[in-house]
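Handout, page 2. Input:
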Amino acid sequence: QSCLSRQQLLAAIRQMQQLLKGQETRFSEGLRAVRSRLSTIHASLAKAAPQLPAASCPALQAPADGRKFGTKYLVDHEVHFACDPGFQLLGSSTRMCQANGSWTGQEPRCAEISECSSSPCQNGGTCLEGLNYFKCLCPPQWTGTTCQYQAQTAPPTWRVMDDPAFSRQPRCAQIAQTQQCSCDPGFHMSGTASNGICQDLNECEVYQREGGPRLCAHTCVNIPGSFRCSCPAGYVLLGDGKSCEDIDECSLSQDNCTNGSTCINTGGGFQCVTPQCPPAAGNVSYVKTSPFQCERNPCPMESRSCHQAPKTISFHYLSLPSKLQTPAPLFRMATVAAPGRPGPDSLRFGIAGGNNRGHFVVQRSDRHTGELLLVQSLQGPRIIHVDVDMAEYLDRAFQTKHLSKITLFVSAYEF
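Output:
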């Protein structure tokens, strides 16, 4: 007897439809008011006195041991640079004057060409230069004239003792009828006093054997009288001579990603990614609204499964060094209320999927933000996927859900 009749149900549904229509009308009116206000502000700013672009750029000089072509420094004019024979150009060979009064590119300079200037040594090898020749000192796992081959398990045939660059004659002087001999820094006396020779001191082996401070972030290469640090492929040696920094192939346009894919810089390399929306299933389908986000298409009123599916799916890519100290915050999710729509009064965060969930936890950092934490260190190289979802509730009633699909590219190195 307490159940509503069919006519009462239809009347209640019509009343709800009219209420929703009124809410949509008020929301649209609010958007029109905001748009009108923005247009007014834009018009008032546009009427302000515009800042006139610079008509020219500062004069440029030819680099030392080089030449400059072009004498006009007006906007959109170009100046070209070249080096004298025996020198190579570092920096920009062409610079154009921009409307803001600055030049594009980097200041050019001419560097003397040497045997090692072309970086002939591969795979982290160090180039040792002599008179009209060069030698590549290779890391232990590489061999060949340019370190182009992986070393075999057999011991290498070349030894420090075999290279004359690693041994020198001592400096001797007659003092009080006694001959005193000494070696240059980085060398030690080998043999007897009468026929001794200065042999190179292998700092890399000495420091490793004696447990001293780590000389290099990656590989230590012994050279006559000293040592050098080398970095793996995809990294560059920093100014301190020991630390390695990743080369951002994406920003330098050194990637080979095709149209439609996006370059993601990783430790020692890059990845070409093309995020795809999930295929349609039942009443649930998605459309790509940006290269890294999908939006759910409107759901039928009666489809609960559609309303329970994520409203947005976003794709995120992170590059991590190997053995990162934990716990480490990796990613944050937050919610923002749309104009005219009350924001959620409760949020729930969780790990929804992935191929290595045991390494992560999700915790709330404040009322409207959740954090993904790495709690177990990751050893690279490897690729980890983890999905984090955020559900919105209003008055304890489920509103919507958002899904973040996170991909971690873990480097093989700890830098």
